[in-house]
Amino acid sequence: MLMSKHFPGTFREVEKGLSRSHELLLKSGFIYPQAAGIWHLLPFGFKVHQKICNLIYKTMEKYGVLNMSLPILQPKEDWEKTERWEGYCRTKTMFVTTEQHSGAFYGLAPTAEEMVTSLVATRTRSYKEMPIILHQIGPKFRDELRPRNGLLRGREFSMSDAYSFDVDEDGMRASFELMRKIYHEIFNQLHLNFIAVQADSGSIGGKGSSEFMALSEGGEDTLLTCDTCDYGANQERCLCLIPHFEPDSKKEQMKKEHTPHARTVKELEDCLKKEAPQMVKTIFWIADEKPLAVCIRGDLEINKIKLQNKVRATILEEASPEVIERVTGAPVGFAGPIGLKEKIPIYFDESVQGMCNFVCGGNEKEYHFVNVNFGTDLPEPKEYYDLVAAQPGFTCFECRNGTLQKKTGIEIGHIFQLQDRYSRLMKAYYQSQEGKQILIQMGCYGIGTSRLLQTIAEQNHDEKGLIWPECVAPYQVLIVPINITEESQRQLAQQLYQQLKDNGVEVILDDRDLRAGVKFNDAELIGFPWRITCGREAKNQKVELTCRKTGKMEVIGVEEVLKRFCKS
What pTM was computed for the model? Predict the structure, then answer.
């Protein structure tokens, strides 16, 4: 490959405020935007992505996983069987199109559980045919409300997704552990700094899942890990022990206090001379268009994902001030649980259990109740729920000794134990050895391959540009003649280029008639692992060999170059 023939070249100016990896991929000419959340993979970017995919395909095959391809256009009827069509359409997650003649509805694949389960349900008959693990890499489409951060949050992207089919839960868990091993091997081959943590299963479903997170200061996910044991989880899934607060031992009589201008917990602390853990704050939500309230200790926050799972809502949003006032008769900051039960459901977090003489909203403007107690002023809840959002500094639930530490990361993989979530609804049975019809047990496993490209860039760059690992670099070696018009430099560069290419080395020659500084800057920006510079010593058949990762440079002869990079 010749740099003079490469498209589109590098860019010096890009949009401000981008993450470093996003900025560098744009500047170095790996990606280019077409519209919000829709990206061109330019020739260099395409080569990197292709290498990522090939590495995944080979690793899957190594462990007996079967590579294939599933449809992008997915019939509405299959999604209705799993009861997901309405939810995906209501949340505007799925792009939908219609067939011109019949008007039949299709979804553009946001995921592939329906397609692969339908396939296996029609083609698998006996226990003898399992276990099966099927894998594909293909495009996915999700109508992101706010696509952002380049390839990390797009409307069109590429994914590796695998699906396992087993005769029982033990087999499903064995397949799950095999895929966990495969994922570790893939991410290690890509030289990623990552951890596996517990995660929420979201719209995919199932009873157990793990996320693989590439650690990065620019990551969009918050992780909490224990500083004592190996427990770690996405913040939305993290279990914890909340900070202890000793309640009052003697109940006092409830009274209503005038609290002008005290809407927040901090303002109430100053006004009533009470601490936040002595308060119960009431937060109002709209779950699938119906209001509900959550009561939690004043120093804690609500985990939206936990709440959404608990109430089984497709759409969950915080209620507007207008809704809060309509339901409670009080403006935001003065609403509370007393008298609400007859109007809307109330969910009490475990943190309020056992509280005594607490403060809560008075459901009247500028008023709060103090010395409120369950059983006298407020009915004792029949059930308490774990709805608290874990925070750094809380105690680890697993070992009950360590402290949770905050890390940020980029989700690069997610594996799920689905059980019979899809096989039951799509009637995917197999015949057992005893002749019985039994539901297939499933797992599913996803890697965002296009986001992997940017994740690798996020973890492999410096102030000058990208530093690609050799396994995915668009070209292993760049040859730069300092002056392409100088005969000895040009001839040696062309000689080395041809010899390396003939020996199967991925090599690119910068044959542009530009200043050496421009070519060196481009080389460092693009991030080729090795640079061979043909300069003054070219007439002596010597070159400078520079490693992009370490910056180490050495002067060596042509024969040594060939020994370094040629296999034979």
Answer: 0.86
Spatial neighbors of 14 by CB under 8 A, at least 6 apart, are 23, 26, 27
Which residue would you say has higher pLDDT here, 146 or 453? 453
Phi and psi, residue 258, nearest 5°:
-80, 120
For residue 267, the model assigns a pLDDT of 94
How high is the mean pLDDT of the chain? Answer: 92
| Residue 560 in tokens | 């040594």
Amino acid 275 reads: E
Q: Residue 390: name the closest of 317, 319, 306, 314 by CA.
A: 306
Tell me which DSSP letter residue 339 carries.
Answer: T
Measured CA to CA in angstroms, residue 336 lies from 254, 283, 339 at distances of 14, 9, 8
End-to-end CA distance of the chain: 22
Report the sign of the C-alpha dihedral through residues 428, 432, 436, 441, in that order.
Answer: negative
Tokens 């990390």: give the residue.
152
Helix, strand or coil for residue 445? strand
The CA distance from 317 to 315, in Å, is: 7
Tokens linked to 408: 């940020």
Q: Which stretches of 496-541 are assigned E, i.e. beta strand?
A: 507-509, 530-534
CB count within 10 Å of CB 7 equals: 8
What percent of the chain clears pLDDT 70, i.e. is strictly above it?
98
